[in-house]
Write a structure and sequence with these properties.
It contains 6 helices and 19 strands. With 334 residues, the protein is of the alpha+beta class. β14 and β15 form a beta hairpin. The longest helix is centred in the N-terminal third of the chain and has 34 residues. It is globular. Belongs to the DNase II family. This is Deoxyribonuclease-2-alpha. One of its GO terms (biological process) is apoptotic DNA fragmentation.
Length: 334
Amino acid sequence: MIGRRTTFCSSKVQERMLKYVHLPVYFILITFSQSQNPKCRSNDGGADVDWAILYKAPGQTRGKIIVSNSAGAWVDGAVALTTRAGQSFGVTLEHVIGDNAAIKFLAYNNVPPGMPKVKTKSNSKGLIILQTTPGTDAASWIVHTVPGFPAAKTGYSWPVAENANGHLLICLTIPESQINAIAASLLRAEPLVHYNDIPETETAGMEYFKKLADGQFATVPPYTSRQSIKTKGAPEVTVNVYSKLAASRYGDCRVLQRNIRLIKSPARVGDHDTNLDADLTNWAVSDPGNIFCHIDRPYAKNQTVESAMAVCIDQADIFARFNDIAAQVENCPQ
């Protein structure tokens, strides 16, 4: 009886020890699997978020950032954008600049990496990223203003020359079901797609995405498009995407019964200064309302014959942060 009892206790002890040994292994596997997704990331890249927006003023290397779970004020980016690890967009792009069999993406840029003199009608820059793991619905859409960035599958390389310029990077975590609506808008913005490895099995039934991936653009009316998408988080955020072909004309600053004003230069982004001469961003806030819009072209007469796209986000915190920047304004030239 004593021998049996001793053996029984020994088995229990061994079982408990095995549980403790396995626990950190399980924890590591869970952490690893969570990092293998294309979702937007927190400031330090350590957690998934519904959206992230980084505004880099001219001459700055970190920029100011707000994310969906911390948007009460602009804060410094965790590390310089020249460093991939430990910063929001660097971690989201981890599997764009490196290899991961479960992460696929489509990238577009009017100045594609390694091809600076390519001619295109578009000024759009961005990526659609998704995870192909069965049973997983994880994707993101990044729009930005940085030429030649990022380069696919060649390692992380922020273009240092762009530190002198002001830039905007926006990441939206989306359900994969939203990709076709995004593609429908992009078709009229006529972007230059320079990389795509998203398998057709992932986008089956998405006719607009197929046309985008194949380089087919609209040649007949309608010349403009308005699509509405939603982010994946709770609460979800509504994003309206407007786009136009070069064949569609739009007006100048003198709009009937509207008062469009321009930001003075310099303007403050938190404790950073931006100036119009070196700032490559084009954005607007509604008055009144809670709408912030990123536009991929300047609002000027000489752009009326070019394709363009505007991404308009209906979210109070995002609006408030950009409205803070827009507090010092001047009237549109007469």
